[in-house]
Amino acid sequence: MKRPDRVFPHPWLSVSLLIGWLLLMNSVSVGNVIMAAVLATLIPWLTHVFWPRSPHRLRFGRLLIFACRVLSDIVLANLQVARLILGSRRRLRPAFVHYPLQLQQDFSISVLASTISLTPGTVSADISPDRSTLLIHGLDVGDEQALIEHIRQRYEEPIREIFECSTP
């Protein structure tokens, strides 16, 4: 087992665990803070080998814009899915689409797959062994190429800009 380079191999996870533990315990006593610190240090340190390598450069401004875009897409997709489900089932056109990836880093691909799955009406189902194609299921796919271009413009391009770690 490879040892991590730092005491905090995943600092954001450590911060999240620390805050999450304190919120869960609903107390900021000395014992809870010590326990939270121990968990926030040990869990990322012991599980670092299972995590994809995170990017070294990150553009926070673009990340904030991307997060707002994804949140608005989630709200709009919920309304569209509700309309589809409450309407005629004959209008549904479910399909699996093979999405050709331009991203190359595992972390970036994971963010893209998670974003696609967060948006109602689409789910990331599988990734090819060579990491070149993502299998996506769409609830209503009229035009596969239009869906591919929508995902590329709306999600994949911004992810590439945010993390600056994947090139086409």
From TrEMBL:
Native organism: Halopseudomonas aestusnigri
Membrane topology, record value: Multi-pass membrane protein
Protein name (record): Multicomponent K+:H+ antiporter subunit E
Stored InterPro entries: Cation_antiport_E
Primary localization: membrane
One Pfam family of this chain: MNHE
GO MF, one annotated term: monoatomic cation transmembrane transporter activity
Family: Belongs to the CPA3 antiporters (TC 2.A.63) subunit E family.
Transmembrane segments: 12-43
Keywords: Cell membrane, Membrane, Transmembrane, Transmembrane helix
CC annotations in GO: plasma membrane
Record localization: Cell membrane
